[in-house]
Each structure stands twice: as C-alpha cells, then as structure tokens.
Amino acid sequence: MTRARRPWWLIGLGVLAVSLLVGLGVWQLQRLQWKTALIERVEAGLVAPPSAAPGPDLWTGVTFDTAEYRRVEVRGQYLPSDDTLVKAVTSRGSGFWVMSPFEADDGWRLFVNRGFVPDDQTSAADRPKPEGEQTVTGLLRLTQPGGAFLRDNDPTASRWFSRDTVAMAEAIGLREVAPYFIDADASGDGLPIGGLTVVSFPNKHFGYAMTWFGLAAVFAYLLYRATRPDAVER
C-alpha cells in the first residue's frame, strides 16, 4: 500500500464551500439582530402616542428602518380630488383600499388610506369623504412603487395594485406629495373600514443560521474524511 496524494483541488473546493456556508450563517445572525431590533421598534411604536407626521423638510429621512409603522397624526382637510381605489385582500375579504388626498394645515400633501371597501361597495356614495378640518391618526407606511407581484399598476386604466403615492398623485394632477401614506385608524361603523393594517414580521433567521452552520459542519467532516492523512491507495 502507498500513501495517497492529497487532492489539493478537492481541499480547495471543500474549504471554499465551508467558508461560504459559515459566511451565510453569520449573515443570518446579522439579519436576526436587525430583525429583532426592527420588531422591538415597531412594537414600541404601535403603543406610543402619535407623533406629528413628517413634513417636506423631513422626507429624506423617512425610511423603512426609521419610520415604517410609526404612529403619526396630521391635521388638515381632505382634498376634493377623486379617491384612488387600490386592490386589496383583507380579513374582510376582497375589495379595495380607499386612498384619499389630504392637505395638511401648513400646505403640504399626502395620501390617507381611509380603509377598506368591499368589491360591491365602491361608489363615492358608499365611501363619503369627511368634510372640514380633520385630525387623522394612524400608521405611517412607505410608498409602494410599481405594483404587486406580477401585477403592474396601470394609471391610465385606473387599475392599482399597490399604494404608489407618487404615481397616484400624478394621475390626479397633484404635485409633491409625501413619500408615504397613513393607514388611518378605525373610526365609526361605516365605510371605509379603517384599522385593518396587519403588522407581522416572521423571524426565522436563527433557524436559518443553524442550518447553514450545520451544513458547514457536515462539509468539514466529509472534507476531513476525504483528505485525512492516513488515506491510502490500494
């Protein structure tokens, strides 16, 4: 029997594979840290008193990590422009979100998601718009450009599958609207039905990390078995 030559190419590939798997595990632990901090921030914000909705001088700082799902409020009035109906599927069934343009007291504009209406109750009479001075309280949500999965928004046909505030504003002739909208809290028993925002963040990153680390351990063991010093040729 003679001692086998070590397959250096196999060792190189094995080390690369183990390094990649360990790196993926570390990345998932980093994602776990980020997701945990996000959940803590959102949960704290959901029960905190509402803060003032950010005006134009603060829009550049409105990001998912800093503002999404924050409770906010704004005073002003709804504009007479038409509402935009955005396709929605909720716990109440299929229907539409009613996105209404709103002007704050100091002149800037945003959209308010006044809530949900069923497919068969979409006329303006079914969703009367409040008149006069209003205070809107709800959750800040970032604009959703483009559309939904495999469904692009079609402004010319008034077919909307995501709440794209910029495109909706352009479609009704508004300028410089906020890069977010407010999901309004529930108010009253009529339509639209507010307060249906679902806040849920799956957090499986620890399990994913353990999977990658486990695979790395298996590859490391197989690499050791294939290249151990006492390997022989018969």
Number of domains: 2
User: Cα distance, first to last residue?
Assistant: 6 Å
Q: What composes the largest sheet?
A: 5 strands, mixed, barrel
What string, H for helix and E for strand, traces the elements in order?
EHEHEEEEEEEHEHE
Structural classification:
alpha+beta
What is the name of the CATH class of the largest domain? Answer: Mainly Beta
What does this protein look like?
This protein has 2 domains: 67 residues; 115 residues, OB fold (Dihydrolipoamide Acetyltransferase, E2P) (Beta Barrel), CATH 2.40.50. Strands 3-5-6-10-7 form a 5-stranded mixed β-barrel. The protein has a two-stranded antiparallel sheet with strand order 1-11. Strands 8-9 form a two-stranded antiparallel sheet. It is α+β, with helices and mostly antiparallel strands and 234 residues long. The protein is elongated and about 85 Å long. 32% of the residues lie in helices and 27% in strands. It has 4 helices and 11 strands. The protein starts with a strand and ends with a strand. The mean pLDDT is 90.
Question: Which descriptors apply to this entry?
Answer:
single chain; 5-stranded mixed beta barrel; OB fold (Dihydrolipoamide Acetyltransferase, E2P); 234 residues; two-stranded antiparallel ribbon; alpha+beta; 2 domains
